[in-house]
Write a structure and sequence with these properties.
The complex is a heterodimer of chains A (332) and B (288). Chain A has 332 residues and is of the alpha/beta class. Chain A has helices spanning 54-61, 84-93, 101-104, 111-121, 127-140, 157-169, 187-203, 215-219, 239-244, 249-256, 296-300, 326-331; strands spanning 6-17, 26-38, 43-47, 69-74, 77-78, 94-97, 175-179, 207-212, 224-229, 232-238, 306-308, 311-313. Chain A contains 12 helices and 12 strands. Chain B is 68% helix and 0% strand. In chain B, α1 (23-45) packs across α2 (79-115), α2 packs across α9 and α2 (79-115) packs parallel to α10. The chains are: A alpha/beta (332), B mainly alpha (288).
């Protein structure tokens, strides 16, 4: 196996919250003890509901937020050891695609300028060369060069998101983090963008970290998946085996919540009740208050990731999780 | 997917030709151009030296004497010549003062927003201190202590409102830094300086331009106030504010002594406000 491109060890991020000047501050653990390895050209999906810490994880991986504990290595070099000059080289090799394409683009610059800017701030070409490279990249995401002089507000949502993708990929990075990159788009446009991302991956030497809550989309884009619950990885493994046979009750609930077109597999009850409950996360399994299989042991002992079949699961009762009905597994 | 060649819905609207500007903007522009021309050439186009006195024709009404189109003041000085000289002084002071103010305030606001921490607290503390003391009292103290000189005076009116720019700039930059585009630029490796200059500044220019057009008239008024109190522009030099102050004793009998310089102040400040507002909209790509 190739040496990992990206490696995270014991990654943790704690935010200190304070409700008022005199209130006691409360620590909120957004990301907790995460280990992650990503090989070159590997594609991993990170899924979880809102507040599970998936965006924070993406920012930690790219060194946009300093971790509270643990370290991230890219190409064997830890973020903490990087000097200002090294950061520039790192930025060239990594990129982030943000969730909202309208705010991710500067309203006062044309899209051609914005895509070309990446090339020429790294002194990879002069202005004309940068513009040519930008045009070529825009062509790759299906935008004709005639659109280069448009401003972002003159484009549709799908076009903007493709501009953002073009800007992220114009430097031929080796790692791109997609933070809910297609969630804001409507379904027909999502399909287009997914197709573009798949074909770009085939053309370029790229590793993807795909952060999303959308289980339908991620299936078409990644090889491996990590399910996050309150900042912890509760299940990880090959995408097919996880979808076919989820081992964590939370993963199972997420998968069975994917709407199905098959009338035999209507969801009658909501798969997970209640909201995320960070207060209970301190000891025991964080998911136990919402878990149908919770037992006493779940409250006293925090489950650790352990190997089951091909993947890893953090659940005491993983063996008791029922398989999904066949039709659901297929649709998802 | 289909890619329309020339989509009517989103094509870049051609820029309006200059003659498509509204008439009011033309008038504002013409007035400001005229004021600047007067400011540059007052010495040469004035019919008389503005200090020359004609004791026999004091307080002549506008149009009453063929040699003095706008009349004369209480010493028989030609009002038109005086107005030209005063416009020059006032414009120079207001222009230099506004620029000093904008540069100092914007820079300090940027520093506060960029570095945060104790520097932010220090700068914003200074700004609060500035805002809590009536500036005219401070200015009076400084002018009385050091004596009035044109340079000191310009500096003083320049720093009068810096805290507004600082506060405005700081807030705008803090929120712009959280916008996706600023972060996206940093992620692809654009250096901070360029992020501020190319990405953030054009996006926050609108409110700053408006602040400039609000500040410009205020500096004229501050100059007038200080001159009125005798610590600003010193005779024999003259300014619009000084002329208004000078003419107040004759309001009942010779209204033009105060009214004409007052009118120039009003029209100039109004023109600058309207033009600034218009330019802000023109510079904003979203509104083009």
């Amino acid at each position: 196996m190739n040496p990992p491109l990206l490696q995270a060890r014991g990654l943790q991020k704690t935010f200190r919250l304070r409700s008022g000047p005199l209130a006691r501050s409360v620590d909120h653990v957004a990301v907790d003890a995460i280990d992650l390895d990503l090989a070159p050209r590997e594609r991993i999906g990170i899924v979880g509901e809102s507040g599970s810490g998936k965006s924070t994880l993406g920012r930690l991986l790219l060194g946009l937020t300093p971790p509270s504990a643990g370290e991230v290595r890219f190409d064997g070099v830890a973020h903490a050891d990087r000097r200002p000059g090294d950061w520039k080289a790192f930025r060239r090799q990594t990129s982030l695609v943000q969730q909202n394409p309208l705010s991710a683009l500067n309203p006062q610059m044309t899209i051609g300028q914005q895509v070309a800017e990446a090339v020429w701030v790294h002194r990879l070409a002069d202005r004309h060369g940068a513009r040519d490279q930008a045009a070529a990249m825009l062509e790759k995401v299906g935008l004709s060069a005639e659109l280069m002089d448009r401003f972002p507000h003159q484009m549709s949502g799908g076009q903007r998101q493709r501009v953002v993708i073009a800007r992220a990929l114009v430097l031929s990075p080796r790692l791109v983090v997609f933070d809910e990159a297609v969630s804001a788009l409507d379904v027909s446009v999502q399909a287009q963008v997914v197709a573009i991302l798949r074909s770009l991956w085939q053309q370029l030497d790229l590793a993807y970290v795909f952060i999303t809550h959308d289980l339908r989309i991620v299936r078409h884009l990644v090889d491996r998946i990590a399910v996050l619950y309150l900042g912890r990885v509760v299940e990880t493994g090959d995408i097919r085996s996880v979808y076919a046979r989820p081992r964590h009750p939370y993963t199972r609930a997420l998968l069975s919540s994917v709407p199905s077109l098959d009338p035999r597999v209507r969801n009658v009850a909501p798969p997970v009740q209640g909201d995320l409950d960070p207060g209970k996360a301190a000891r025991g399994c964080a998911f136990r208050s919402r878990c149908p299989l919770a037992i006493e042991r779940c409250a006293s002992e925090t489950p650790r990731l352990r190997r089951i079949d091909q993947g890893h699961v953090a659940c005491h009762r993983a063996e008791d999780v029922r398989p999904l009905p066949m039709a659901t597994a297929e649709v998802a | 997917m289909t890619q329309a060649r020339t989509p009517a819905w989103s094509g870049r609207r051609p820029r309006l030709p200059a003659f498509g500007w509204p008439l009011s903007i033309w008038m504002c522009g013409a007035w400001i151009a005229a004021a600047i021309a007067v400011g540059a050439t007052a010495q040469w186009i004035a019919p008389y030296d503005h200090l020359q006195q004609f004791p026999l024709t004091r307080l002549a009404a506008p149009g009453a004497l063929p040699g003095h189109v706008l009349g004369t003041d209480y010493l028989g000085r030609d009002l038109l010549s005086n107005l030209l000289a005063a416009t020059q002084t006032t414009l120079v002071i207001a222009l230099v003062g506004s620029l000093i103010c904008a540069v100092i305030g914007t820079s300090l606001g940027l520093l506060a927003a960029h570095f945060g921490g104790w520097l932010d607290n220090l700068i914003m503390g200074l700004a609060d201190a500035m805002a809590s003391v009536p500036f005219i009292v401070v200015a009076l103290g400084i002018l009385a202590f050091f004596g009035s000189s044109p340079l000191l005076f310009m500096l003083l009116v320049g720093i009068a409102n810096w805290e507004r720019y600082a506060r405005l700039t700081r807030g705008l930059i803090l929120s712009a830094n959280l916008e996706g585009y600023a972060e996206a630029a940093r992620i692809i490796g654009v250096p901070d300086r360029r992020v501020y200059w190319r990405h953030i500044l054009p996006n926050i220019a609108g409110p700053l331009i408006v602040q400039l057009t609000v500040n410009f008239p205020e500096i004229i008024l501050l100059e007038s106030g200080l001159s009125f109190l005798g610590l600003g522009i010193q005779p024999p030099a003259t300014s619009l504010g000084l002329m208004v102050a000078d003419g107040r004793n004759y309001l009942a009998t010779a209204w033009w002594l105060s009214a004409l310089p007052g009118l120039i102040i009003v029209v100039t400040t109004l023109s600058i406000s309207l033009l600034g507002d218009f330019l802000r909209d023109r510079f904003d790509a979203r509104l083009r």
